[in-house]
Design a protein that fits this description.
This protein is about 30% helix and about 20% strand. The protein has helices at about 20-25, 60-80, 110-120, 135-150, 165-175, 235-250, 265-280, 295, 305-315, and strands at about 5-15, 15, 35, 45, 90-95, 125-130, 155-160, 195-205, 215-225, 260, 290, 320, 345, 350-355, 360-365.
């Protein structure tokens, strides 16, 4: 594939807007706090965005508010005006279930996205991607394919997911929710904790974009369909996604300096991901690992886009923060994680990986 330029981005996380998140990660902050629930849960910790306006009372309104906020931010930063019919542009949205499990009303997977597009003044029909925890990453893949084929000249990719009662109950019942803190890749990890976030990113072909915030140079995806929630323990499909992304980027395993992990903190997922890194990057001694869910929680359908933006920021800074929640790492990958003072990077290429429910595995290779 031809390199794709990130012309603009914006994000809202529990740490705040835009650069506030990367600053908090380098300060080793955690956004989790005790969020009361009328239900009996394994854990009441969650990472939610606190700046919720008083008029936004329903989950469906909150989903829309977060999405439109980041869309308006990227449009304002580029000063390109609102795209409409006749413009060679596409809106590509991503979520897992957003508000739909708790506050669907007459909404479907696409109506809320259409409302968001209309509210910013556009008449375009959005594409909506729902592939569980890989939704944000897969939305970038869809946008990348449209750009690569010449159908459009720029894409606005939007990912948003919120913390709701139904999701907290579901993960508590499944046993995937942590019993204490979220501890990615720690030998004492016990599960994930939910977070919420929204992000928007504008993609263009690099040859058409003079100023950029980084590039998306490789996309690889696979689906093992091993089970509803558990990954294929062989790891072959994740390796396939990595191989495809490297092939698209025309790079080898040894060309990557940073691996931003899915790192949910569950026993099975982190063990599998550690094994994949140990084997797939065995000859790459410079590869540094980091996980961000210990600080931000797992924002489900939004995490792929949020983490790709964080990957680009780390690559641009040539510096990687410590992984929040990690005390004693799985031995096979322990040396790859930075200590409290972070670690300087030795290259300008990196990959972010998502491992979604249903076997959706996606790798995105970024370049500063």
């Amino acid at each position: 594939m031809k390199p794709l330029a990130v012309a603009a981005w914006s994000m809202i996380t529990p740490f705040g807007k835009d650069e506030a998140t990367i600053e908090a990660l380098f300060k080793q902050k955690s956004a989790h706090y005790n969020l009361s629930s009328p239900w009996k849960l394994r854990n009441t910790l969650a990472a939610v965005v606190s700046e919720r306006p008083s008029h936004v009372t329903r989950d469906s309104d909150w989903q829309r508010y977060l999405a439109t906020s980041v869309i308006n931010s990227v449009l304002d930063s580029l000063a390109i005006g609102v795209p409409n019919s006749g413009d060679r542009c596409a809106f590509v949205f991503a979520t897992s279930f957003g508000h739909l499990l708790d506050d669907a009303g007459s909404d479907t997977m696409s109506t809320w996205a259409s409302d968001c597009v209309r509210s910013v003044g556009s008449d375009l029909a959005p594409v909506v991607v729902g592939s569980g925890c890989s939704s944000g990453s897969d939305a970038l893949g869809v946008a990348g394919a449209m750009l690569d084929s010449g159908i459009i000249d720029f894409a606005i990719v939007v990912a948003v997911d919120i913390v709701t009662d139904a999701k907290r109950i579901a993960h508590s019942t499944l046993g995937t929710m942590a019993t204490s803190k979220l501890k990615p890749f720690d030998i004492n990890r016990s599960g994930m904790l939910l977070g919420e976030a929204s992000a928007a990113l504008v993609l263009r072909r690099s040859e058409d974009c003079a100023e950029r915030k980084g590039e998306l140079i490789g996309i690889g995806a696979s689906n093992d369909a091993f089970g509803l929630t558990g990954p294929d323990p062989s790891g072959l499909s994740v390796r396939l996604a990595l191989d495809r992304a490297l092939g698209a980027a025309k790079l080898s395993n040894n060309d990557l300096a940073l691996y931003l992990a899915h790192g949910t903190g569950t026993r099975i997922n982190d063990e599998l991901e550690a094994k994949i890194v140990e084997q797939f990057f065995a000859g790459n001694e410079m590869l540094t690992m980091v996980g961000t869910k210990g600080a931000l929680g797992h924002s489900l359908g939004a995490c792929g886009l949020v983490e790709f933006i964080l990957l680009l920021q780390m690559l641009r800074k040539r510096n990687v923060p410590a992984t929040i929640g990690l005390s004693e790492a799985i031995s096979s990958v322990a040396a790859r994680f930075p200590g409290p003072d972070g670690r300087r990077l030795q290259g300008h290429n990196g990959v972010s990986v998502t491992l979604g429910f249903g076997g959706f595995n996606t790798a995105l290779i970024g370049r500063a």
